[in-house]
């Protein structure tokens, strides 16, 4: 069990029934709720980490959630360096995890 | 306590001089107004170039420096050990391309002249260019490859030279600002006064980059070194796609220009951190470091002429620095004819990182009374081309 | 009639917009988000209406009134999804000859490509750029599943997403409580709230009913009513303790909690481990100063924008309000915003005595928060050699120390450039101030050799090189000549 969307039927704020949004994440279709950020859709679908760092290859995901830390960068429809927490998911978005190896060793 | 030499300024030129003098057995005191590498040396690209220099005295010095960097990089590594950050010396080579037919003609003529001065300047055709740089705009008109163009990470190089200088006995006082000269009863220079008290030395060397004119003035002389602002852009990290230093040929014209107005020309390269560095501008705005977005726009637009794929690269930072500009486009290296004991190592314009080592060797030999490997007279503050400017400003 | 540009549409910016409009100025309100309200009033998107959304928020009615008024007002142009990437203070002044500079904006989806560049030349600017969480580094804080409190809040309030099922909230400050409350209201089980600060007499006065702090001000909120029961019965609130390490391989699996002494040094032997699937850690807030610095504003020794009684900064025509002038919460932000907007439109603070009074009251509140919860100097004792200090460039504390020892540098600028710490894509937003403190702590007198600030970012937000290369569309300084916004019968902020 990890991050999850509160089912609207259980939500004390009594939201209306939401529409869904569907995106591709590393080739697999995942579903979210219309109006969610790409980060939110990914988190609710399971993975907490969805970027590999350049130096140590470690996993990273959402940290600050408000566009400050740039840890949640993903490639969206071919554009790199998109903050997943700041970009609203749009039906059909093709999202790919990002990893940039450092240039070869310097003499 | 008296010193053999006081060096004013702990940028790369001051650090290289401190190391060379200390290794030669001089007692050295470095006075730095701020902290090591706090000025131009940490606000530049770290270029060690021959490609942008036509036949002449600056090229001679650059060729000498280029030889020195290979051995010094190895010496520093051996001396400072693996725990010291790498100075990232790399002879990655420079590719100079012309984007117009006119530009192609002058680039090829320039390269031919350089070959006459023993510069390795290889004309490359379109296929060879794309082999060197697969993502280069295929529409470029001509290209010349300079295998000897190299680079260092300038802040680390400065720190490494200073660390080595200290290991060899040089002393460094940071946050120490020179406020004037000290003179004996006969009027001879015997040191400097600072905000932390007087310091004596038989020689005072001004190596304060674009601020050298101000230091000289405090000691009582003029020096026509002026700041020329340069702005650079840094992208976020990306896959390694640019493998050499790649310049638009109009960079060469901008380096040699006297124009006070804004000039921009493309210089694009990858860094060890995986970012791409995009330069650069030249503008005389005194020491005003305000951001000018129109300058950045022009720098960005010209870089896209070389590498169209960069259009979607994210720019995360800009930075700028002040090059020490001299009216006759040569550094002042040597003793001031107007004041015995006052020496200069200033005015390297955009080439100070590369030329620092050559400047230091040259001055060390002059201090020792040896004949330097390179004829020092063209760089002397007593040279004829500088004389009118010295009088003008005095 | 003057044109006032307001940067940031959180509480301070919205209040400024309304005040400037009431005084007859033509207003442009810019925010990088798609919605108004800022982080504080982060809410569900329009396509997800909820009958009782107000229970998640403090001052929801105030927000709705501000939003409704401004959206309906022809004299207020609202630019959302609009990021200011630079302020060029050297650029030619506005049509009236006295403007504070040229403001460069990129408009379109966050981090998109080919977005439109526009330039604004206002007569006056109100900076209301707010603050973000400050999280101190600790071992494992770079694991997925470690979030800032702000992340938990944004996802809970903006998406109804809980960052974990079993969550610990830790750090310092009254913000921890609304974070815990939001998590609980979104279906997480909050295993505990750990407040680093030991109890000053002030905080002791607040206990044993910390939920009364919800949401950071004294007025009762619906959320407190809803969630208070849960907090009381099920969420342990512990002071003088914090999360000092997070553990796991690819994600957080557990955290170590320990007691802290009064300087926040962990007390050996008090460690215990809690199994979690998420942890939210915030140690207060860092003001977003880059645009204020770009505009040339003087910054105080406490690292906020210096303002006078009229919320005027040191730069003529530039005003500041909200968290960038001091962390004080929503009520202070609303009062400052109103005064700033009014002054930017040519008014005098004496015209709004009610706002002046509120500002005075809530400034006192802000000072008490800082006294009770301010970061204490022992925190680096949590940091081990392996701890990542710069997340972007993955620089460990050990590497930072080793380089500092090698170069013997006392300079922040040099150490950034020799280690790459703070040079990554977040541009030191997350690590900058911690780096400054970690480096200074090793030096004589705990003082850096240079006076470089990690707050300066001439490019305030990344944009694409192609966007920067494109010509900007010059934009009218003001919307069509507006009539002043009428005062409503009752001020909704009161």
Structure notes:
The complex is a heterotrimer of chains A (107), B (394) and C (494). Chain A has 107 residues and is mainly beta. Chain A has 1 helix and 8 strands. In chain A, strands 3-2-8-6-7 form a 5-stranded mixed sheet, covered by helices on one side. Chain A has a two-stranded antiparallel sheet with strand order 4-5. In chain A, strand 6 and strand 7 (79-83) form a beta hairpin. The longest helix of chain A is centred in the middle third of the chain and has 8 residues, at 38-45. Chain A is elongated. The N and C termini of chain A lie far apart (47 Å). Chain B folds into 2 domains: 2-71 and 154-224 and 328-393, FAD/NAD(P)-binding domain (3-Layer(bba) Sandwich); 94-147 and 226-324, 2-Layer Sandwich (D-Amino Acid Oxidase, Chain A, domain 2). Chain B is 32% helix and 26% strand. In chain B, the strands form 3 sheets. In chain B, strands 1, 2, 8, 9, 10, 11, 17 and 18 form an 8-stranded mixed sheet that branches. In chain B, helix 1 (12-23) packs parallel to helix 9 (352-368). Chain B starts with a strand and ends with a helix. In chain B, 58% of the residues are buried. The model of chain B has no long low-confidence stretch (mean pLDDT 94). By secondary structure, chain C is an alpha/beta fold. Chain C folds into 3 domains: 3-132 and 286-370, FAD/NAD(P)-binding domain, CATH 3.50.50; 135-283, 3-Layer(bba) Sandwich (FAD/NAD(P)-binding domain), CATH 3.50.50.60; 379-446, no CATH class. Chain C contains 13 helices and 23 strands. The radius of gyration of chain C is 22 Å and the shape is globular. Residues 201-227 and 489-494 of chain C have low confidence and may be disordered. Chains in contact: A-B, A-C, B-C. At the A-C interface, strand 1, helix 1, strand 5 and strand 7 of A face strand 9, helix 3 and strand 10 of C. Chain C: GO terms for molecular function: oxidoreductase activity. Chain C: Residues 476-494 have a biased composition (Pro residues).
């Amino acid at each position: 069990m990890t991050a999850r969307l509160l089912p609207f039927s259980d939500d004390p704020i009594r939201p209306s029934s939401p529409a869904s949004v569907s995106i591709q994440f590393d080739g697999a279709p995942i579903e979210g709720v219309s109006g969610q950020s790409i980060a939110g859709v990914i988190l609710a679908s399971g993975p907490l980490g969805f970027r590999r760092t350049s130096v140590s290859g470690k996993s990273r995901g959402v940290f600050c959630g408000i566009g400050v830390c740039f840890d949640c960068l993903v490639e969206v429809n071919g554009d790199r360096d998109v903050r997943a927490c700041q970009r609203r998911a749009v039906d059909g978005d093709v999202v790919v995890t990002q990893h940039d190896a450092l240039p070869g060793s310097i003499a | 306590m008296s010193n053999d030499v006081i060096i004013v300024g702990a940028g790369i030129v001051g650090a290289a001089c401190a190391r060379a003098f200390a290794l030669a057995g001089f007692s050295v005191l470095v006075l730095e107004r701020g902290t090591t590498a706090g000025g131009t040396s940490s606000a530049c690209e770290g270029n060690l170039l021959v490609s942008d220099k036509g036949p002449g005295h600056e090229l001679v010095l650059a060729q000498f420096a280029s030889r020195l960097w290979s051995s010094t990089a190895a010496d520093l590594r051996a001396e400072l050990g693996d725990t010291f950050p790498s100075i990232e010396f790399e002879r990655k080579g420079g590719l100079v391309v012309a984007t117009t037919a006119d530009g192609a003609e002058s680039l090829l003529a320039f390269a031919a002249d350089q070959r006459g001065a023993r510069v390795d300047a290889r004309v490359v055709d379109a296929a060879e260019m794309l082999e060197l740089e697969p993502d280069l705009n295929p529409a470029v008109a001509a290209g010349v490859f300079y295998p000897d163009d190299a680079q260092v990470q300038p802040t680390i190089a400065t720190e490494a030279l200073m660390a080595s200088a200290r290991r060899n006995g040089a002393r460094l006082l940071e946050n120490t600002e020179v406020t004037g000269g000290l003179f004996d009863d006969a009027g001879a220079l015997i040191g400097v006064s600072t905000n932390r008290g007087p310091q004596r030395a038989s020689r005072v060397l001004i190596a304060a980059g674009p601020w050298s004119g101000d230091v000289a003035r405090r000691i009582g002389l003029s020096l026509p070194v002026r700041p020329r602002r340069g702005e650079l852009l840094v992208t976020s990290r990306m896959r390694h796609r640019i493998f050499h230093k790649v310049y638009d040929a109009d960079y060469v014209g901008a380096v040699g220009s006297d124009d006070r107005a804004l000039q921009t020309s493309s210089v694009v390269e990858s860094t060890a951190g995986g970012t791409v560095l995009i330069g650069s501008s030249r503008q005389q705005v005194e020491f005003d470091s305000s951001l000018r977005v129109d300058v950045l726009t022009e720098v960005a637009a010209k870089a896209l002429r070389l590498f169209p794929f960069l259009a979607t690269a994210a720019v995360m930072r800009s930075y700028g620095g002040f090059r020490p500009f001299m009216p006759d486009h040569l550094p002042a290296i040597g003793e001031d004819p107007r004041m015995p004991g006052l020496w200069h190592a200033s005015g390297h314009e955009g080439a100070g990182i590369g030329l620092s080592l050559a400047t230091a060797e040259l001055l060390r030999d002059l201090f020792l009374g040896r004949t330097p490997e390179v004829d020092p007279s063209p760089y002397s503050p007593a040279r004829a081309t500088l004389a009118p400017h010295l009088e003008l400003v005095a | 009639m003057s044109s006032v540009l307001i940067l940031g549409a959180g509480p301070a910016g919205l209040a400024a917009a309304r005040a400037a409009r009431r005084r007859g100025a033509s207003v442009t309100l810019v925010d990088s988000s798609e919605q108004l309200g800022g982080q504080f009033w982060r809410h569900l998107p329009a396509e997800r209406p909820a009958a009782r959304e107000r229970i998640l928020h403090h001052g929801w009615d105030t927000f709705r009134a501000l939003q409704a008024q401004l959206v309906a007002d022809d004299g207020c142009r609202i630019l959302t999804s609009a990021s200011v990437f630079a302020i060029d203070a050297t650029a030619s002044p506005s049509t009236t000859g006295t403007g504070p500079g040229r403001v460069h904006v990129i408009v379109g989806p966050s981090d998109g490509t080919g977005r439109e560049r526009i330039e604004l030349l206002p007569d006056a600017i109100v900076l209301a750029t707010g603050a973000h969480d400050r999280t101190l580094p600790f071992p494992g804080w770079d694991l997925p599943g470690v979030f800032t409190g702000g992340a938990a809040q944004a996802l809970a309030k903006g998406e109804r997403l809980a960052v974990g099922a079993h969550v610990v909230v830790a750090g310092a400050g009254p913000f921890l409580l609304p974070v815990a409350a939001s998590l609980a209201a979104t279906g997480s089980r909050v295993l505990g709230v750990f407040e680093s600060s030991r109890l000053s007499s002030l905080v002791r006065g607040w206990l044993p009913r910390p939920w009364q702090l919800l949401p950071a001000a004294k007025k009762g909120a619906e959320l407190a009513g809803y969630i208070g029961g849960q907090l009381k019965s099920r969420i342990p609130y512990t002071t003088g303790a914090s999360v000092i390490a997070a553990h796991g391989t690819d994600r957080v699996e557990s955290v170590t909690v320990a007691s802290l002494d009064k300087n926040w040094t962990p007390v050996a032997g008090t460690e215990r481990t809690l199994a979690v699937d998420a942890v939210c850690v915030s140690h207060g807030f860092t003001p977003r100063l880059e645009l204020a610095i770009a505009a040339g504003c003087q910054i105080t020794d406490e690292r906020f924008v210096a303002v006078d009684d009229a919320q005027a900064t040191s730069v003529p025509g530039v005003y500041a309000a909200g968290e960038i002038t001091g962390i004080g919460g929503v009520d202070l932000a609303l009062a400052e915003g109103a005064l700033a907007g009014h002054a930017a439109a040519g008014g005098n603070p004496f015209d709004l005595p009610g706002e002046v009074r509120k500002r005075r009251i809530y400034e006192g509140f802000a000072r008490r928060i800082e006294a009770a919860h301010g970061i204490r100097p022992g925190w680096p004792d949590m940091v081990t050699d392996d701890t990542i200090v710069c997340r972007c460039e993955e620089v460990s504390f050990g590497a930072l120390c080793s380089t500092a020892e090698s170069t013997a540098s006392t300079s922040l600028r040099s150490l950034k450039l020799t280690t790459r710490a703070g040079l990554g894509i977040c541009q030191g937003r997350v690590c900058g101030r911690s780096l400054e403190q970690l480096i200074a702590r090793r030096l004589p007198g705990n003082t850096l050799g240079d006076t470089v600030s990690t707050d300066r970012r001439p490019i305030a937000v990344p944009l694409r090189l192609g966007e920067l290369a494109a010509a900007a569309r010059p934009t009218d300084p003001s919307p069509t000549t507006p009539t002043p916004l009428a005062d409503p019968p009752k001020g909704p902020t009161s």
